[in-house]
Each structure stands twice: as C-alpha cells, then as structure tokens.
User: Fold this.
Amino acid sequence: MEQLVSLLKEMKATIDGLIARLGIPQKEARAALLEQQASAPNIWDDPEGAQKIMQEMSRLKDEVGRWRVIANRINDALELAQFDDDSLLDDLSQEVNTLQPIVERMSFQALLSGTYDQENAILAIHAGAGGTDSQDWAAMLERMYLRWAEDNGYKIEVIDRSDGEEAGIKSVTLDVRGEYAYGYLQSERGVHRLVRLSPFDSASRRHTSFAKVELWPDIQEDIDIDINETDLRIDTYRAGGAGGQHVQKNDTAVRITHLPTGIVVQCQNQRSQKQNRERAMQILKARIFEMERQKQEEEMAALKGENVDAGWGNQIRSYVLHPYQMVKDHRTDYESGNVNAVLDGRLNEFIQAYLRYKIEGKNLISEE
Assistant:
C-alpha cells in the first residue's frame, strides 16, 4: 500500500504542477464568463460573434474537463489508500496501473500548449540542390511522413505535387488532419540531410542530399488577414492525375503568387477551379500569417541575443546510411541507429525529444 500511495502522490504532484503551469483555473474562469455571455438573450443578434464565443467556450470546457477529471481520480484514489485497507489493494493497484499511462500522455500533451498546436497542419517538402538524388530524398521524406500519419491515426491528403524529372519529387504539399497535427509536426520544420551511396551514380559514390520541410498551422477561417487582389497573380493549369476517367479535362488547378512576399501556393486536389482557388487562398493566408509570426519570434530572439539563422546550411537532422547508419537531430542530440525504422515513420521519439527540448531546454539521452 505504501508504494501505491507514493506513486499516487507523484502523479498528483505532476498533474497539480501542470494544471498551474497551463493556467487551468484561469481557463475555467474564462469558460464561466463565456457561458454567461452565451446565455444572453441577444447572443445570436451577431451570429459570427456568437459562434466564436461558443467555439471558445466548448474548447476551454473540454480542456479544463480533461484536467479536472484526472485530478479528481487521483485524489479519490489517494483518499481510499489512506484507509490502509488490504481489501482495497487490488482495486487500487488496478486504478494506479490505469492512471499512470494517462498521466504520462497528458504530461506529454502539456508540451503542446502553443496557440495553434491543436490545429491541423500543412506540410510541404522541397528537394534541394543535387538533382535526382535530392528529388528522390524528398520522396523518401514524403513516404516517411505518410507512414507516420498512418501509424498515429492522422489523415493526409496531397494538395499539390511536382514530380521529379527522373525519380522522386521536386516538391509536395500535404494536408495533415487530426488532433495536435501542427503541434507534433513542428519538430520537422527545417532542412533534412541524407548521406548515402547514390543509386543514381554509376560509380556508386557517396552523395549528400538536402530537402527542406515547411509547416504551417491550418487555421483557415480564424486568420484575419486582408490580401489585396492587385498583389496576386493567379494562374490556372491542368491538374495531374493517374489517368483514365480521373484526368482533369479543364484547367482546374490553381497557382497563386503573392507578389509582395514572393510566396507561391498551388492547389490541384479539389474538384473545381473555384474550390482549388479557395483552398489556395486559405493556404496563402496561413503562410503569410506564419511568416509574420516567425519574423516576430526572430526579432524577439535577436533582442535576447539568440541565434536565429535558419538557412539551408543549418540542417536540423541528418540521416546517414553510409559509411555507418545513424539518424541524429542536431537540436536535441537525440539519435537512433535504426535508420530504416525512422524512414518507415518511427518519428515519435524524435518529436518527443524536440518538444521537451523546446520547453525544458534539455537534451535527451540517445536511443541505443
């Protein structure tokens, strides 16, 4: 019984600490205030404002509820344990075994407390310099993220793809849908480096290839950004397809260039040109929003004297297939010798290491 009480006290300390750090009491008060506003008789005089209130209230209630439920379960178990009744031992042991993974999962999700961490994500992969090798590497990364999404219950849809001339892809944009998609995948933003014996080199020499991964939160209607139509160049083209009845006969794919920033967005996965244009505009707004947000973060980092260089030469992760096998994240120093598993979508250890490093500023022990 003493060991169970000790475990429960540890879990209680963890959850109480997270509740304080995440501001759950303040969010609870905010939800109560919104509930009062939602009960006002004239709330629906402004349908758009009412909908925002209801959405925020629902989100806050869900978040507060999750933390209160687990805290209450731990407190109830502790109260029972205080009786020191051996007849309760089996039930308490079972409850502790049930609570431990829940606490671990919630502790990890607490790392995802950013404003947009719960949102869907738009992930883009671009082949770097290096011709066919880099285009093949970009395709390998696409497969890696598709496998990761499949293993973790996320849905992925291809928004736009540009195939390589001989193999691989020049670029691809993916729509990743599911809870905390943006929060988890933020660890992947940056330059990925591959070292291997090139399958495209007749002399089988070692090549180094680069691909860049970009990521934006897919917050769509929540982005309040005014874009002047005169700042846009909109081109249409025929969407690619697998052939047969699915080949588009009309120019339904849309490419939008935002002239002031040079941002180019393409969309070809919707059925009509109108739908592709609407989706491309949503993505453009997300990219402009994220660009401004990163600029602000870089300015703050510069004021603090932090290094903000995010150029191509600063890869975030290296995947070495020759002369040895190793995947290493250069931000966290987390590494794994099981390269094939990583390329097959086993990314959670790298994601967790990055999120903990981001919050705690600590490197994690490498995988043997």
Summary: The longest strand covers residues 206-217. Confidence is low (pLDDT under 50) at residues 241-249, 306-311. Residues 2-109 form a domain with the Methane Monooxygenase Hydroxylase; Chain G, domain 1 fold (CATH 1.20.58.410). The chain is about 45% helix and 20% strand.
